[in-house]
Write a structure and sequence with these properties.
about 350 residues; 19 strands; globular; about 25% strand
């Protein structure tokens, strides 16, 4: 079967091969035929080594498709079911799950160290225990979440990561209040979803911040009240908040420098929500006086900061009601052979989300 493989961490190009086999099928597992997958910046971060991932590996974690087969002990799924891929499934029994913080369950991360593909030359890992840049994949049953028949595969794929992450940051983690002021730093797919979440919550002002003009233009279409370059952010803060700072600032880049900018543009008593996934050696710093004196809430948001199954349902309901626009987030479509061009488009900011059709 065909799959896009990264041979070594640090390489920028994937090789599309046809000698890959999905392995590991058995009790508690399902075999999926991937029909659509999105490109998420986390895939690029894993390729570059920012996010830890053993290699060789198949990137991709934002996918949807059909169940081909189910292993012994799997209930609630049958061959032919339409599903999205959940890269962070909840085990339901660990302390985090019992507390209702299923997004913090580590069971899914344990799968990342077990190869779920192989080639004649040896084992191949799937990113985050999944790996959706491929025609077929074997995952734990909890990674396959049924979707209604009216949800297209490409829409379901987006909900599987970027949309859930961005919407949840605004709705679950920050709990944006109606009438508030919001700034979103970084307007790729997750940032655009964060903007849509803030709009759903009733934010009065939503300022999008991004160095790429096309992304700023897109942010306005998805609900931002204005969009500025990083150099214009200080002026926007003065104009929109009279210099006080925003009620909520979302950092959707994953770098300490932008997190510090976000902190400085959050009002005293306001909320900084960190959504971007960054490197382990990139340290964000605040001094102890400002931490105490400014009383700003610093809230990381992991995968939307809430129960992902409920978040999926909410995203579908909002999409059906026309409250969020998911179709327009897909700015490019490619086949698997065009995966490297799609990665370049994401790196330069030309695309919001590219749908890879398999």
């Amino acid at each position: 079967m065909r799959a896009a493989v990264l041979h070594e961490i640090g390489q920028e190009k994937l090789e599309v091969l046809d000698d890959v086999e999905a392995v590991g099928f058995g009790p508690g597992k399902v075999r999926l035929r991937i029909r659509a997958t999105g490109l998420c910046h986390s895939d690029v971060s894993a390729m570059s080594g920012v996010l830890p991932q053993p290699a060789p590996f198949i990137p991709g974690h934002e996918g949807a498709g059909e169940v081909l087969d189910v292993g012994d002990g799997v209930t609630g799924l049958s061959a032919g079911d339409r599903v999205l891929v959940c890269w962070l499934p909840a085990c339901g029994t660990c302390p985090s799950c019992r507390r209702g913080q299923t997004q913090l369950c580590l069971a899914g991360f344990m799968n990342a160290g077990t190869p779920n593909f192989k080639r004649p030359g040896g084992d191949v890992f799937g990113f985050a225990g999944t790996g959706t840049f491929t025609e077929e994949v074997v995952v734990g049953a909890g990674c396959a979440v049924p979707i209604p028949d009216d949800v297209p595969f490409e829409i379901a794929a987006l909900i599987g990561c970027g949309v859930t992450t961005g919407l949840g940051a605004a709705i679950n983690t920050a709990q944006v209040e109606a009438g508030s002021s919001v700034a979103v730093i970084g307007c790729g797919g997750v940032g655009i979803s964060t903007i849509q979440g803030a709009r759903v919550q009733g934010a009065a002002q939503i300022v999008a911040v991004d160095p790429v003009a096309s992304r700023r233009e897109a942010a306005l279409r998805f609900g931002a009240t204005e969009a500025v370059s990083p150099d214009e952010f200080a002026d926007a803060k003065q104009r929109v908040t009279a210099g006080e700072g925003f009620d909520y600032v979302f950092e959707v880049v994953g770098k300490s420098a932008t997190a510090r900018t976000a902190y400085e543009n959050t009002r005293r008593g306001g909320t900084l929500c960190v959504v971007g996934a960054g490197a382990m050696d990139d340290n964000f710093q605040v001094n102890m006086f400002e931490l105490f004196f400014d009383e700003k809430r610093i809230l990381p948001s992991m995968y939307g900061g809430g129960d992902v199954l409920r978040s999926y349902e909410r995203a579908i309901a909002l999409w059906r009601a026309g409250r969020i626009d998911l179709e327009s987030m897909i700015t490019h479509r490619v086949r698997l052979e065009g995966i490297n061009d799609a990665l370049d488009q994401m790196r330069t900011g030309e695309s919001l989300r590219t749908c890879v059709e398999l």
